[in-house]
Design goal:
This protein is α/β, with parallel strands linked by helices. Helix content is 43%, strand content 19%.
C-alpha cells in the first residue's frame, strides 16, 4: 500500500509542471501560496507542487487542479520587495491528491505517494535505459544543446524512473504534455510516452535546422539581422516569453527623453542592448531590467524650485512648533545662508535632543518652508554598509542603497533628506555604515557619490541633508565633524502645556473623529496629565495620554452615554487614565550622613539621583552597585582616591581605609547609569560617610572631579536643573565652566533657583557638608 502524507502544504502552479528529480527556480506571488511556503519552511520544508488546469480562471475547488503533482523539497526562498517569493525547489516523488482545503490562510491537503513499479526483467530494464540515453543524446546533438555536464549526468544514471523525468524536463514541451506523463500509472506507459516525445523533438529540431539552412542560403548579409530578430520575437511569443516585445523600444524612448548627463544615457543604451540579447526569463535579464529601470527612475538633473523667503520659513516654523526660539533662529539663518550661497557651501545640520522633542517634525517643516520634497531615511539599527552604498550587481537580489532609493522616491535631485537616528548606526562584519555615510555628508565629495548598484557618479550636492540624533556622544567623531549640531533640549512644563493646548489636543480630537464641541480640556487637566501621567523630555507620551482621553470620550459618545460635550477636568482624569503614574517627588526632609542628591541626564530628560555611601568594618574593600557603566565606576574610584588624599584635613585616620569597607550605591539598580557627572556627588557621599557629617538636603549637585579635586564641566544642565526644580530644590552646585550655559537659560528655568559655581571640590564641601 502506498504511503499517505497528511496535511502537506500545497502550492498551485499556473502554466508549469514540476517533475520528480527536477531542480528549478520560479516566482510565487499568490498570497495563499506564499503562506504555504512559509508553513512548509517552519515544518519539514516539503511541499506539494500541483498544476492548475485552466490558466485563465481562478481556483475555486479541487476540480480546478490536476489530480497528480510532485512532492518537492524547498531549498531556498527569497522574499522580494513586491511581496513575491523567489523559490528554489527539488522534486522528490510523484503524488496523487486525495483531499485539500482552500479555506485556510494557506492551502493544505492529504496525498498518496505513487511510486511506479516495473515489470521489466533486469536485462529488459538495462536495454531500455541505454536506448533512452542514446535517443536523448541524439536529441541534444541535433538541437545544439549537447553540453558536457548534461551528457555526463545522463551517463551516470542507473534508474529508469529518474532518467524518464530528467529527459522529460529537458525537452522543450509545454506543461500539459509533462502533466500527461506524470499522471500515467505505470513506468512502462511513461517510458513509451517519453520515447515518443523525444522522437518528435528530434524530428522538429531536424526540420528547423533544415529550414534555417534554406533561409540562410537565400538571404543576403543585410537581411540577416532583421530575420534573426523576427525569428527570436516569434519564438518568444510562442513560448509565452514575448509578453512585451516593445519593452526595449520603450526603454530607448525613455532614454531619449531622460534629463541626464550623456554618460548616463550611453550607459543605459549599452545595457538595453545587452538586455535585448538575453532570454526573457533568465536571471541576467531580470537583473538588467531592474538596473535599467533604476537608472530611468533617478531624477538626475530634475530640480524643484526653492522658496528662499525667510519670513515664510519663520511663519511655517511658528505654525508647526511652539517655543524652540533659538533652534528656530538657527534654522532660519541656515535657510537664509542656503538661499545666498552656491551649492554645497552650507554644512549638513544635525538636530540633537531627547526623543519626542520635535526633531523629525522640524525637518518636515523646513522642507515645507523651502518647497522641497521631503524624504526620511531611517538609520536606526542599520549595520550593513550596502544599505547606504547599495549591493554590487554580481549579488543575487542586488538593489541600490537607501540614498539612491530616497532620490527615486523624491523624483527630484534636490530634496530634503532626513537621516533619522544617525547615532544608532552600527558596525559589524558587513561593513562600517558610519564610514559609508562620510562620503554622503561631505560637501566636497558628494558631488560624485558612487552607489555600488548604479555604478555611475551621482551628484548629492543639491540634496539638503538634515540628521537627527538622541545622543551626540554616540556619533562617530569623523561623521560628527561633517555636521553642524543644533541642540533641542527638554521641554519645560510650561512649554509642554502650551504645546498640548495649542497643538496636541486639536490633533487628537481630529484623529478620534470628535469635534471641539464634543470634548474640551481644562488647563488644570492638561497640567495634571503633564505632571502625574508623563515623565519625559519631549511630548510623545503626553500626546498618547491625551489620545487615550479622546478615545474614551469617543466610546462614551458612540454608546450614547454622553449626549453633550464633555469637559475633561482633574477629577475625571482618574476615571479615564487611572491612578497617577508619577507622584510628586519631594526633596529629602532631613540632612543625612552619606546621602547626597545628585543630578543626572537620561534619554527621557533630567532626573535626580540619590547617591548613598556607608562604611563598615572590613579590610578596605570597595563595593559599587546600581547597574553602572565603566565611566561611572571609574568616577567612583577617582572619588575614593581623592577622599584618601585629603583624609587628614578632615580628621580621618589613614588606617580607617584599611579597616573599613566602603559601599556606594546608586538607587534604581535596574536603570543603566553612566557618565562622569556624578563625580562630586560620589566624592561628597564617601567623605560624609567617613567623617560622620551630614549633607545638606536642600542642595543638588553635578560635576566631574579629577584626582586633584578640580571640578570639570558636564552636559545636559538644563534637564538636570528642571529635575531639581521639580522636587522643590532651589540650590544647585554646578561647575564654574557651565556658567555660560546657565546664562542662556530661559527665565522660566532660572526663576527662584540659586546656582553655586565651583572650581574645586573644597568649595563643594564648604557649601554642602554640615559641621
Amino acid at each position: 500500500m502506498n504511503e499517505i502524507v497528511k496535511s502537506i502544504p500545497i502550492v498551485v502552479l499556473k502554466g508549469m509542471t514540476i517533475l520528480p528529480y527536477m531542480v528549478i527556480h520560479f516566482d510565487v506571488n499568490r498570497k495563499q501560496s506564499v503562506k504555504s511556503l512559509e508553513y512548509a519552511i517552519k515544518n519539514n520544508r516539503q511541499i506539494l507542487m500541483i498544476t492548475q488546469r485552466d490558466t485563465e480562471t481562478d481556483i475555486t475547488g479541487v476540480e480546478d487542479i490536476y489530480e497528480y503533482g510532485t512532492i518537492a523539497e524547498i531549498k531556498e526562498v527569497v522574499r522580494l520587495r513586491d511581496k513575491t517569493a523567489h523559490v528554489l525547489v527539488q522534486g522528490i516523488r510523484r503524488a496523487r491528491l486525495l483531499d485539500c482545503s482552500f479555506n485556510s490562510e494557506y492551502t493544505i491537503g492529504d496525498v498518496e505517494v505513487c511510486d511506479t513499479g516495473t515489470n521489466y526483467s533486469d536485462a529488459g530494464l538495462e536495454a531500455r535505459l541505454e536506448l533512452l540515453k542514446e535517443m536523448f543524446k541524439h536529441f541534444l546533438s541535433v538541437s545544439g544543446r549537447n553540453k558536457g555536464n548534461v551528457t555526463a549526468r545522463i551517463d551516470a544514471m542507473h534508474s529508469l524512473d529518474e532518467l524518464i523525468y530528467i529527459v522529460l524536463a529537458e525537452c522543450s514541451i509545454d506543461y500539459e504534455e509533462r502533466q500527461y506523463v506524470l499522471e500515467l500509472e505505470s513506468i512502462e506507459e511513461q517510458y513509451d510516452a517519453v520515447c515518443d516525445i523525444v522522437c518528435s523533438e528530434i524530428d522538429i529540431e531536424s526540420i528547423k535546422k533544415e529550414l534555417e539552412d534554406n533561409v540562410r542560403a537565400r538571404v543576403d548579409k543585410g537581411q540577416k539581422e532583421y530575420i534573426l530578430r523576427e525569428q527570436l520575437s516569434a519564438i518568444k511569443e510562442e513560448l509565452g516569453e514575448g509578453e512585451d516585445p516593445d519593452e526595449c523600444d520603450r526603454f530607448r524612448e525613455a532614454v531619449a527623453n531622460l534629463n541626464a548627463p550623456e554618460q548616463v544615457k550611453d550607459k543605459l543604451l549599452k545595457e538595453i542592448k545587452r538586455y535585448d540579447s538575453f532570454p526573457f526569463s533568465s536571471s541576467e535579464a531580470a537583473l538588467l531590467r531592474s538596473y535599467i529601470e533604476t537608472l530611468l527612475e533617478l531624477p538626475w538633473n530634475n530640480m524643484s524650485e526653492d522658496n528662499p523667503d525667510v519670513i515664510n520659513a519663520q511663519k511655517i516654523l511658528d505654525e508647526d512648533h511652539y517655543g524652540l526660539t533659538k533652534v528656530k533662529e538657527r534654522i532660519v539663518e541656515f535657510i537664509a545662508v542656503k538661499s545666498l550661497t552656491s551649492k554645497g557651501s552650507v554644512p549638513v545640520v544635525c538636530l540633537v535632543g531627547p526623543p519626542g522633542t520635535g526633531k523629525t517634525s522640524i525637518a518636515a517643516s523646513v522642507a515645507r518652508a523651502l518647497n522641497r520634497k521631503y524624504v526620511r531615511v531611517c538609520l536606526g539599527g542599520v549595520r550593513d554598509e550596502a544599505e547606504i552604498r547599495g549591493h554590487r550587481k554580481t549579488y543575487v537580489g542586488a538593489m541600490p542603497g537607501r540614498i539612491v532609493n530616497g532620490l527615486k522616491q523624491a523624483k527630484t535631485a534636490n530634496p530634503l533628506m532626513l537621516l533619522d537616528e544617525i547615532d544608532k548606526v552600527g558596525t559589524d562584519s558587513r561593513g562600517d555604515t558610519a564610514s559609508a555615510l562620510l562620503e554622503v555628508l561631505d560637501t566636497e565629495q558628494n558631488v560624485a557619490f558612487r552607489d555600488h548598484f548604479v555604478e555611475l557618479p551621482i551628484d548629492l550636492s543639491n540634496v539638503l541633508f538634515i540628521a537627527t540624533a538622541n545622543d551626540i556622544g554616540s556619533i562617530p567623531k569623523p561623521l560628527l565633524d561633517r555636521m553642524e549640531v543644533i541642540e533641542l533640549n527638554s521641554y519645560t512644563s510650561v512649554e509642554k502645556f502650551h504645546i498640548a493646548k495649542e497643538y496636541l489636543v486639536a490633533k487628537q480630537i481630529k484623529a478620534c473623529g470628535l469635534t471641539k464641541s464634543q470634548i474640551s480640556f481644562s488647563d488644570d487637566a492638561l497640567c495634571s496629565i503633564i505632571d502625574n501621567y508623563t515623565k519625559e523630555a519631549g511630548v510623545r507620551e503626553l500626546e498618547r495620554q491625551i489620545g487615550r482621553v479622546c478615545r474614551r470620550v469617543a466610546k462614551l459618545i458612540a454608546e450614547g452615554t454622553v449626549k453633550r460635550g464633555k469637559k475633561i477636568t482633574t477629577r475625571s482624569l482618574k476615571d479615564i487614565l487611572g491612578t497617577p503614574k508619577y507622584d510628586d517627588e519631594q526633596m529629602t526632609k532631613e540632612s543625612t550622613v552619606g546621602m547626597v542628591k545628585g543630578l543626572a541626564w537620561t534619554s527621557v530628560g533630567g532626573t535626580t539621583l540619590d547617591v548613598e555611601a556607608v562604611t563598615m568594618p572590613g579590610k578596605g574593600n570597595v563595593t559599587i552597585t546600581g547597574k553602572l557603566g565603566d565611566v561611572m565606576k571609574e568616577s567612583a574610584q577617582v572619588a575614593l582616591g581623592y577622599v584618601r588624599s585629603i583624609a587628614q584635613s578632615y580628621g580621618i585616620e589613614p588606617e580607617n581605609f584599611e579597616k573599613k569597607d566602603v559601599y556606594v550605591h546608586f538607587p534604581e539598580g535596574a536603570t543603566p547609569k553612566d557618565g562622569p557627572s556624578a563625580g562630586i556627588t560620589v566624592t561628597l557621599a564617601i567623605l560624609s560617610a567617613f567623617t560622620g557629617r551630614a549633607v545638606r538636603n536642600d542642595i543638588a549637585m553635578t560635576g566631574e572631579i579629577t584626582l586633584h579635586g578640580n571640578v570639570l564641566a558636564i552636559g545636559g544642565l538644563k534637564e538636570k536643573t528642571l529635575a531639581a526644580k521639580a522636587i522643590g530644590i532651589r540650590k544647585v552646585i554646578v561647575p564654574y565652566t557651565n556658567r555660560r550655559d546657565v546664562e542662556e537659560f530661559e527665565s522660566e528655568i532660572t526663576d527662584g533657583m540659586e546656582f553655586s559655581y565651583v572650581k574645586k571640590m573644597d568649595e563643594v564641601i564648604k557649601l554642602a557638608l554640615l559641621d
